[in-house]
Design a protein that fits this description.
The complex is a heterodimer of chains A (428) and B (547). With 428 residues, chain A is α/β, with parallel strands linked by helices. Chain A is built from twelve helices and 17 strands. In chain A, helix 1 crosses helix 6 and helix 4 runs parallel beside helix 5. The N and C termini of chain A lie close together (11 Å). Classes of the chains: A alpha/beta (428), B alpha/beta (547).
């Protein structure tokens, strides 16, 4: 147990890495810039892509994305991922010598580039969309209200099948496994990821999980399946839209995660890879594929490490708070931490694991207290699954949301458990 | 490594069909208890060093809850997690997590969690129970003596869980595993086996390369136990067992198990020997009968002839007898086995022989249709010489000799040839040549020597011999003086040659001869006296009256 950790803030242009010890002291840091070659030339033979910004075409013509529906887009590492991995490898090699690198326990990367595809819809690959809610919700099909270009880019096979649960956990209808299987077969060879959203899934994820098993068998382990019960919130449409977007970027996230893991091995770093999420907590790379959108805002989330580094605090009405990195960006004359550019990297390296539960709990015999206890326990277990050390994980405040117009007694609870990541190895 | 580890529990063979799915690096961690699991979350409450067993309702290994169980288990310091093998393969991520956390994850075929925990727990809380079980199993398996040395070693090896070898008194492998035999060449172990009062012993070997990387290599333990036919006698055989990773608590029971097996095998050996001896005695008695009945009218009785025929003895034809005897031997050699070995050697050389035990050795005869068809004396001597040499090679310190009688026809001829063979053998025994020479004497070969036989056999010479030699033996009971004088006279009074043969200094020989001269009542410088002393001293120690 060396306690050595590496944090990397990674964009397409620049990688900043920092090496810290078990006391969170910075032992080394390094930064590298991307070479001056444009992204398109990095992998020979690939044509440069048309660039869209806010729906307006700014580059040369390419075939209408609609016609790309039937071609499977798994052509290998794209130029963008290749550039990121190249930077990652270079910054690691320069950060420390080989023996030190071999002792690193954990490496955390803060990047939102893989999900940057959302700004470039033409590069999105089609996804399969499965909604488990029939006979309900059929009047509002999936992708309703989406921007046309975005919808066209992501639309793959779409199916609404029987199943789902009501607000109180009762089954709406039995899960139509035959229809799920038919949908799975339609997806074979045509999609790079699948989004599954079931009515009432946060309360009862059984139908979504069963659909996942069926799809896994039909499509194999290489097609990411993003399910909505991993996303909090009550509304089916909100969850569905989220998982569709998530599925659209899931292949890029997975590609990045596996390429990054290989790069680590090449650089002689035999450590667990974690990715930073938007709230500054970290997620094991393997789980990031199930929560791809969590990467959004990663560098900002990681930058909350800045106050730790700067040691700056201020008092507001007698309550101590730390300086939020947002104020730093918005007020240029504010004190800039001397090593501000390392903030994101340090934040990544010191990031903790967390698990959030946001669901509706129905009062049973134990009443509200039992619901709260269940919510706390679930949050704690979720944090542990994501790597938190069971001995030091802390469960935060349980926030309650009122549920109106519902005949049975229930409550919406949201609670987050956070804790330092458990050190592995050394227990021999 | 003291205490029980999960690796050792699994190796006990109480469970079949288990599979270590991951975390094998942690198999040598000490186990404090084995308990059935309730819920995955409950893992946190377990004490460090526990091994938890889950049934299929509590933990499914192809589910994410397996990862949670592993993480909680690692945090709680568990020594292992056992659960039912699911129908689908266990996901690679789960197995790799177990490896990374160093927490053994073992899949079992459908077994009840409570039953598994109940089976293992006693061995963990009280390792003596494992020892008692071992001893009980050994006692049960060796209640009846094994049917053969091979059965002894294979049964004991299966019981102890390691290689076992049976070696004879000189350390040669009789049956079993070379792995258990090889270490016995080590100097201290070899010395232990050579001790005059045999006793059990325990030795540690240097550890070899570890079987599982990243685990400490435990030194192997070699235990030896003697097989004694007689409580105060030497060890007829040694049992050796080589075990690895043996916890201290099991050392005593393993030693005792070895002792039980050794005792059981001693019964086999004694029984085996008794059978041989009974067989041998029967033959001797029958031969005695035949020889007694030769003088009677009509020869041996029909019934006797029948029994002889049943043994394969031929009474009609041209017979040449051979008499064999042990000239020198050491304590470890068991005479009963020698006859069998000589028989085997002769038979494989084309001279099938059934040795009959006699008072001073063994005898047999070969029969041919006629004198012309009989084996040439030279050829017979060569075959005998080779066979005896081969048997001597297998036994340190053994010297054999044989005598061949003349060829004579009929049942009476057997008796005459046997007689001559015996005399020839006695001649061979008196010879003091370098080992390997004069092993087989033919009564016809040297007529001079036949005269000697007559003289040696005469009572007058024998009483003179006793008178002469007794003072020498009284002065030196070890017999060194007698030996030196005899050799001196044999070598024509050359002190130099005598010293060379004995391996001592010439002056030592001179001192001894001077001493002998002073003790003897006769004058060694007188040629007549010297001849008498020479003859007398050659007849010392030979029993001429035996029949």
């Amino acid at each position: 147990m060396s306690g050595l950790r590496v944090g990397v803030a990674l964009t397409g242009h620049r990688a900043v890495a920092v090496l810290i010890d078990h006391d969170d002291a910075v032992l080394a840091h390094h930064a590298v810039e991307a070479s001056s070659l444009p992204a398109g030339d990095r992998s020979p033979g690939r044509p440069s892509r048309a660039m869209y910004q806010n729906g307006d075409k700014v580059g040369p013509d390419v075939p209408d994305p609609v016609h790309r529906e039937n071609t499977a887009h798994r052509a290998g590492p794209r130029a963008a991922t290749g550039g990121l991995i190249d930077l990652l490898g270079r910054v690691l090699t320069c950060l420390a010598d080989a023996p030190t690198r071999a002792r690193v326990e954990r490496i955390v990367v803060a990047t939102e580039d893989p999900v940057g595809l959302l700004e470039r819809p033409v590069e999105l690959a089609p996804v399969g969309i499965l909604r488990i809610a029939a006979p309900a919700t059929t009047s509002v099909p999936p992708l309703t209200g989406w921007p046309p270009r975005l919808a066209a880019a992501v639309r793959g096979p779409v199916a609404v099948v029987g199943g789902g649960h009501q607000y109180d956990g009762r089954e709406l209808a039995p899960l139509d496994l035959a229809a799920v299987a038919a949908f799975g077969r339609a997806c074979r060879g045509t999609v790079c990821a699948v989004a599954v959203a079931g009515a009432g899934a946060p309360t009862n994820p059984v139908h979504e999980e069963r659909a996942r098993s069926v799809l896994l068998e039909l499509l194999g382990p290489d097609v990411p399946i993003v399910t909505s019960h991993d996303v909090g919130g009550a509304g089916l449409l909100e969850r569905e839209n989220t998982v569709v977007l998530g599925a659209a970027v899931a292949p890029a996230v997975e590609e990045f995660a596996s390429a990054a893991t290989s790069a680590l091995v090449e650089a002689g770093v035999d450590a667990d890879l974690y990715l930073v999420t938007g709230d500054g907590t970290v997620l094991p790379a393997g789980l990031a594929i199930r929560h791809p959108l969590a990467l959004l805002g990663a560098p900002h989330g990681a930058a909350r490490g800045a106050p730790v580094e700067a040691g700056l605090f201020s008092e507001v009405a007698g309550v101590r708070t730390s300086i939020r990195p947002l104020r730093v960006a918005e007020t240029p004359e504010a004190v800039r931490p001397p090593r501000g550019e390392l903030a994101a990297a340090i934040g990544a390296a010191t990031g903790q694991a967390s698990g959030t539960v946001d669901a509706v709990f129905f009062y049973g015999e134990g009443g509200r207290d039992e619901c709260v206890a269940t919510a706390r326990r679930s949050a704690r277990e979720l944090a542990i699954r994501r790597g938190a050390d069971p001995r030091t994980v802390r469960v935060g405040e349980v926030r309650e949301g009122a549920m109106t117009y519902i005949p049975v007694r229930c409550v919406r609870l949201r609670v987050t458990a956070t804790g330092p990541v458990m050190a592995t190895g050394g227990l021999r | 490594m003291s205490g029980v580890t999960l690796g050792r529990l699994l190796a006990m063979g109480l469970l079949t069909g288990y599979e270590v799915l991951g975390g094998a690096g942690g198999l040598d961690r000490r186990v404090r208890m084995v308990v059935p699991g309730t819920t995955v979350a409950g893992v946190e409450e377990l004490a460090p060093g526990s091994v938890v067993v889950f049934g299929p309702e509590q933990l499914v290994l192809d589910d994410l809850s397996a990862d949670l169980a592993l993480r909680l288990g690692r945090s709680a310091g568990l020594a292992g997690i056992l659960a039912e093998l699911p129908g689908r393969p266990v996901p690679l991520v789960t197995r790799r997590l177990a490896d990374k956390l160093g927490l053994p994850l073992v899949g079992l075929p459908a077994v009840s969690a409570a039953a598994v925990a109940a089976t293992f727990d006693p061995y963990v809380r009280a390792p003596e129970i494992a020892g008692l079980r071992l001893l009980g199993t050994t006692a049960q398996r060796f209640q009846t003596a094994p049917a053969s040395p091979a059965q002894l070693t294979s049964t004991l090896s299966a019981t102890l869980g390691g290689p076992v070898a049976l070696v004879d008194a000189e350390g040669r492998l009789v049956s079993g595993d070379a792995d258990a035999h090889d270490p016995l060449g080590r100097a201290d172990i070899r010395a232990h086996l050579d001790r005059s009062r045999p006793v059990a012993g325990t030795f540690e070997l240097e550890p070899g390369p570890p079987a599982v990387p990243a685990r400490l290599a435990d030194p192997d333990t070699v235990l030896v136990a003697p097989v004694q036919l007689d409580r105060d006698g030497p060890a007829a055989f040694w049992l050796a067992a080589r075990l690895s990773g043996l916890p201290g608590a099991l050392l005593g029971p393993v030693r005792q198990s070895l002792g039980v097996a050794a005792l059981s095998f001693a019964v086999y050996v004694a029984g085996h020997t008794a059978i041989l001896e009974r067989e041998s005695r029967r033959r001797s008695l029958l031969l005695g009968e035949i020889l007694d009945q030769i003088g009677e009218a009509g020869g041996p009785a029909p019934r006797t002839v029948e029994r002889a025929a049943a043994l394969g003895w031929r009474l009609a034809g041209w017979h040449t007898a051979v008499h064999l005897a042990v000239k020198e031997s050491s304590a470890t050699i068991r005479a009963g086995e020698l006859a069998g070995e000589v028989e085997d050697r002769l038979t494989s050389s084309g001279l099938p022989a059934r040795l009959v035990e006699r008072v001073d050795g063994w005898a047999f005869w070969t029969t041919s249709e006629s004198e012309a068809a009989a084996l040439e004396p030279g050829e017979l001597r060569r075959i005998l010489g080779d066979a005896l040499h081969a048997v001597e090679t297998d036994h340190r310190g053994l010297v054999l000799c044989a005598g061949v009688g003349g060829g004579y026809p009929g049942t009476a001829g057997i008796a005459r040839s046997l007689d001559e063979a015996r005399q020839a053998c006695l001649l061979a025994r008196t010879e003091s040549g370098a080992p390997g020479t004069n092993r087989v004497e033919h009564v016809d070969a040297v007529s001079m020597k036949r005269l000697l036989v007559g003289w040696y056999g005469s009572g007058t010479l024998r009483s003179v011999a006793d008178e002469i030699v007794t003072p020498l033996i009284t002065a030196d009971p070890g017999g060194e003086l007698v030996r030196t004088l005899r050799l001196y006279l044999d070598l024509e009074s050359s002190a130099t040659l005598t010293a060379a043969r004995l391996g001592v200094h010439r002056n030592t020989v001179m001192q001894r001869i001077d001493r002998a001269r002073r003790l003897l009542s006769v004058d060694l410088d007188d040629p007549d006296d010297r001849i008498v002393v020479h003859l007398a001293i050659r007849a010392v120690g030979i029993d001429w009256d035996g029949r």
